[in-house]
Write a structure and sequence with these properties.
Length: about 375
């Protein structure tokens, strides 16, 4: 293995406007590569030290889908069950079409939630959400706000299109209902503790502040970044009591890779604990998009990929140096995980820059391909 090209690439990202970068690669439960560079806080000139904590935004979705699939394995959730079986508020849904609201013609299923085909959107300031927040004194919990979302008309009939949305937040609420636990409690008991993840959760506490990565915004035209007006906040944490399955987690590079590694190694983590069966992971990375839904998915420009149960999944390897079935996801500040069960290889990459299309379409695939090049070199 020769990672020199990969290291040079990561080091050069500062010239593309990325203040700080951190990449870790595992194979068969062992760290085979780690490199971090740049600044955790550019304005204060604080260098990266590899112990940073990040809001990982949509990279949270891999945790949520893993949790829900555990309950599918146990027969406690059915992929093709109506969402209303677990959340009765979803038994009566409407759709907005040509400016008019009508009753939904199709039933929203759990599979639709996994596959982003539920018809939901990402309007976190919808009237129903804002009303629930107001009447709760901004203390509404996960189940309360997810139930409120059902009041809004869907963008289409479930199962007919793909739209990236709050579907996985709804999935987190189903996990709560079925398990009888708060979502974070379920994750800690059934995933995080089993894998030895200690720096992970939904709440930014005072003692985390000196490790927290500063958030930036990207300018695609100039390949520069500037300090984000969001400060250290996460707009997807709708209230202090809301645990967003789609975008709510805080963690470190060293912790996140433990989940990716387990999924790359047949569902068994470095600790020896199993979190999913191998056949469930195969189901997770099976493309779920066809027809109009697949056309919708293509607008995300993840070249070569389809979209399975909450993850992109490689279908056409002419776009990649990796194998068919390599899968994973990313996040709003450009976090990225790659999971390869064929070779038991996984990676997790962190930067904290919003609006960085360059990250999704260039940095992430380049990191992926440079990892495979390095593995092949003697």
């Amino acid at each position: 293995m020769n990672f020199e090209k990969l290291t040079a690439y990561i080091d050069n990202l500062k010239n593309e406007g990325i203040p700080g970068s951190d990449l870790i690669v595992f194979k068969d439960h062992e760290c085979i590569y780690r490199h971090f560079t740049g600044l955790r806080d550019r304005e204060k000139n604080i260098p990266m030290n590899g112990k940073e904590l990040y809001w990982i935004y949509s990279a949270s979705k891999v945790h949520t889908c893993t949790a829900a699939l555990q309950l599918v394995e146990k027969g406690l959730i059915g992929l093709d069950d109506p969402v209303g079986k677990y959340l009765p508020a979803y038994n009566t849904l409407s759709v907005i079409e040509n400016g008019r609201v009508r009753a939904a013609w199709k039933t929203m299923t759990v599979r639709h939630l996994f596959a982003m085909q539920g018809g939901l959107n990402y309007d976190i300031e919808s009237p129903s959400i804002m009303k629930a927040k107001f009447y709760s004194g901004n203390k509404a919990d996960t189940l309360t706000l997810v139930n409120a979302m059902a009041e809004e008309p869907l963008s289409f009939d479930p199962g007919t299109h793909f739209l990236y949305s709050l579907c996985h937040d709804v999935l987190a609420a189903i996990v709560e209902v079925v398990s009888g636990m708060k979502f974070s409690e379920y994750l800690r008991k059934n995933i995080w503790d089993k894998l030895g993840m200690v720096n992970v959760g939904f709440t930014l506490t005072e003692d985390m502040m000196d490790r927290f990565a500063t958030q930036y915004e990207y300018d695609e035209a100039t390949h520069t970044s500037h300090l984000s007006e969001r400060g250290i906040s996460n707009r997807y944490q709708l209230t202090p009591n809301y645990e967003s399955g789609g975008a709510g987690l805080i963690t470190s590079v060293e912790d996140y890779i433990l989940l990716s590694d387990a999924l790359a190694c047949g569902g068994v983590g470095k600790t020896g604990e199993r979190i999913l069966k191998e056949e469930t992971i195969d189901l997770m990375r099976e493309n779920q998009q066809t027809g109009d839904a697949f056309t919708d998915w293509l607008s995300h420009k993840r070249l070569g990929y389809g979209y399975g149960l909450g993850v992109r999944t490689m279908m056409d390897t002419k776009y990649s140096k990796g194998p068919k079935g390599e899968f994973g996801w990313d996040g709003a500040a450009c976090a990225y995980t790659m999971i390869d069960p064929e070779n038991h290889v996984s990676c997790y990459y962190a930067q904290q820059v919003f609006g960085c299309g360059y990250g999704y379409y260039t940095i992430h695939p380049n990191i992926r391909d440079l990892i495979y090049e390095a593995l092949e070199e003697k």
